[in-house]
Predict the structure.
Amino acid sequence: MIDRILAATAQVLEERGYAGLSTNRVAEQAGVSVGSLYRYFADKNELIEELRARSSADVLGELTGALTDAVAMPARDGVRHVLAVLVGSLQRHRAITAAMIDEAPLGAHGNILPEVERQLAQVTRIFVAVHAPSLDPAEAEARIHLAMGVALNACLRIALQPAPGITEDRLIDLTADLMVLGLVPDPLGRSATHAE
Amino acid sequence: MIDRILAATAQVLEERGYAGLSTNRVAEQAGVSVGSLYRYFADKNELIEELRARSSADVLGELTGALTDAVAMPARDGVRHVLAVLVGSLQRHRAITAAMIDEAPLGAHGNILPEVERQLAQVTRIFVAVHAPSLDPAEAEARIHLAMGVALNACLRIALQPAPGITEDRLIDLTADLMVLGLVPDPLGRSATHAE
Amino acid sequence: MIDRILAATAQVLEERGYAGLSTNRVAEQAGVSVGSLYRYFADKNELIEELRARSSADVLGELTGALTDAVAMPARDGVRHVLAVLVGSLQRHRAITAAMIDEAPLGAHGNILPEVERQLAQVTRIFVAVHAPSLDPAEAEARIHLAMGVALNACLRIALQPAPGITEDRLIDLTADLMVLGLVPDPLGRSATHAE
Amino acid sequence: MIDRILAATAQVLEERGYAGLSTNRVAEQAGVSVGSLYRYFADKNELIEELRARSSADVLGELTGALTDAVAMPARDGVRHVLAVLVGSLQRHRAITAAMIDEAPLGAHGNILPEVERQLAQVTRIFVAVHAPSLDPAEAEARIHLAMGVALNACLRIALQPAPGITEDRLIDLTADLMVLGLVPDPLGRSATHAE
DNA sequence: AATGAATGAGATTTCATTCAT
DNA sequence: AATGAATGAAATCTCATTCAT
C-alpha cells in the first residue's frame, strides 16, 4: 500500500509537477482513499520526504555498484565512471529529481540527495587518502566538501539540462578532470616541478 | 510604495519561506492593503519576478565592479576576487536568494540568477580567449558552461551553507583554483610533459 | 446534498437576486461547507446551469402533460389550456424564473427557457400543419418563431407581473386568441370574403 | 462631463459587456477620474439607470416621429410603420439594449424601456378608441397591456436576434398583423357573422 | 471641482486534514 | 483497516467607494 501510494506520488509529480501534487490526487492515482494515505503518512510532508528518501536510496544503490567498480580502475577513469553512472541514475529519476529541485521546499541548497552526497563523500575520502596521502586532513575535508557540491551540481546539470552543442560525454569528461584536479593537489607530480 | 511592498515580500520570504508567501501576508507586512499591492503588481507572479529582478540587478552590479577590478589582476587573483565578491553579494541577499533557490518554481535548476550566470559567462569567454587562446571554441564553450555551474553552485554553498571546520576564505581559494584549472587546459604548460 | 444545495441556491436567488448569489452564501444557506458545494459542482456556473436545467425540466414536464391533453381539445381550447398550464408552472417557479430572466447572463433575450420554447415550437408545428395545411412552410416557420416569442413573453408577463385591474384568466384568453389568429392565417375562412 | 461619462459607459458596455462594466473602467474610458464620476453619480446603479433612461429617451424620440406619421395612415400601415421604426431604433442602440436585457439587474421583466412602453400604450389607447370604439374600457386596457408586451418583445427579438431564414420585413409584417388582430376584436366586421 | 491612490470587504476556488461509518 | 464525504481556513484577485490633496 505504501509502495502504491509512493508510486502514485511519483507519477503525479511527473505529470502535474510539484504544484499539482495534492494528497487527494495522489490517493486517487493510487486507487486508494485519502484516509488510507493518512494512515501511512502523517502528513503531506512526510509523504514527500519518504519519496525523496527512496529515490535517494535508489540512486545510492546504483552508485554503490559504480563505486565498487571504480576502485579497480585508474583514478581518473574511476571518477569518470562514477559520474557517468550518477548522471544516468539521475536521468532515470529525472521527473522526481527535477520536481524536487525546482519546487520542493527542501531548505537545503543543492542537497537534494543528502544521502547520496554523504556516501559519495565517504568514498571520496578514501580516494583522497590513497591518491594524496600527504594532504592535510582539514584541507582534504574542504576539498571534498567543495568537490561534492561540484560533482552533484554538475551531474544534475548534465542530467537535467539540455546542453546546447556539447555532448553529455564530453561534459562528464570535463567534470571528471575537474574533480581529479580539485581533489588531488598535483595528480601528475607536477607540483614537484612546480615547487622548484 | 513599490519599494515597501518589495521589502515586505523579501521579509516574508525570509520569515516564512516561499510556501508561506501570500499576497495578503505581504500586504499586511507592508502595512498596505491588498488592493494596493494589486495596483502595483498585476499578480503574485509579477511581484516575485520583480523582486528577483531587483536582487539579480543588485548582485549583478556588485559583480560588474569586481569584474572590472579583476581584469587588472593576475588570472587566479582576478578569479578569486570575483568569487569573493560574489559570495559576499549572495550573503547580503541571503534571504531572497535562499528562498528562491530552494523553492521558487523557476524551471532552471540552480540557475537562479540567470543574468548573473550569463554576465559571468560573457567575461569568462574573454578570460579563456586570453589565457587559453588555442582552445577549440566548442571545447571552450563546454568548459565555460560547466565552470559557470560550478562557480555559482560553489558560491551559493559558501554563501549559504554553514561550512563545518573550513574557513570561507579557504573554500574560495579552492574554488578559484578549480576554476582556473577547469577553464585553462594546462595553465602551466603541463600538457607538454603529459604527452610524452 | 445536491438537492439541498440547489434548494439553497433557489432560495438565495429569491432573497438576494442574481447579484447577491455567492457560493459562500449558498453554502451557508444550505448548512453545508463551501468545500462540499465544490465537491458537487465544478464551479458557480455549473451550479446555476443545473438549477436552470432542473427548473426547465420541471416546467417542461408540466407542459408536456398539458400538450397531451390539448390534442384532444378544439384548437383554441387546447391553446388556452397549454397557456394556462404554462402560466401556472412559471408562477410555481417564480423565484428562479424571475431571477434568471432579469439577471442571469444568458445571452438569449427572453429565451430563458430555450427547451420550453423548442418543445412548444415542435408541437406548434403540428398544430399549424393540421389547422392551416395550405400555409407555405417558410411562412409557417416565421409565424411559429414569432408566436413562440409572443407566447412565452406573454406567459411570463402574466405569471410574474402584477396585472392592474385585469384578471389573469382574461389575459390568458386574449393570448390564446392572439396565438390562434397569429398562427392560422384565416381561422374562419375569412380570407375568402377578404379576397373579394 | 456627465455626457462623457455616459458615453464611456455605453462604450464599455459594448466592448466588455455588463460583467466587464466597472466604475474605474468607465472613468478611464471617459478620460476622467473615478472621483469625478462619483461627483456626478451617487453610485454605479445611478450611472446605469441614467444610461438606460437616456437610451430610452432616444428611442422614444424616434418613436414619437413615427407615431405622428402613423396617425395619417391606414391602421395596419400605421402600426407597421411604428414597429419598423422601433426595430430600427433598437438596432441602433443594440449594444446597450442587449447588455441591459441580458444582464442588468432590472427587476422588471421585459420592461427594459418602460418609458417606451408607456408612450406606446398611450397612443395605442387612442388607436383602440378610434378603431374599436365599442370595446369595453377594461377589456381595452387588457388588450393594450398584452399588446405592448407582445410588441416590445417581438421588436426586441427582431432587432437583436438573428432570424434564421426569415426576413426582418416579413416578421414586422406578421407582428403588425398580430397587433391589429389583437387590439381590435374584429377588424373586418367578422364578428357579426361570427355572432350569429 | 477634480484627482487618483488607497482601501478592504467579499468573491471564487483549492486542498490538507478529519472522522463517522 | 479502509473509506471518502465533509470541512473550513486560506489563497488569489476585483472593484465600488472614499478622501486627502
About this structure: Residues 24, 27, 32-36, 39 of chain A lie near DNA strand F (CB under 10 Å from a C1'). DSSP finds ten helices and no strands in chain A. The radius of gyration of chain A is 20 Å. Residues 106-110, 188-196 of chain A have pLDDT under 50 and may be disordered.
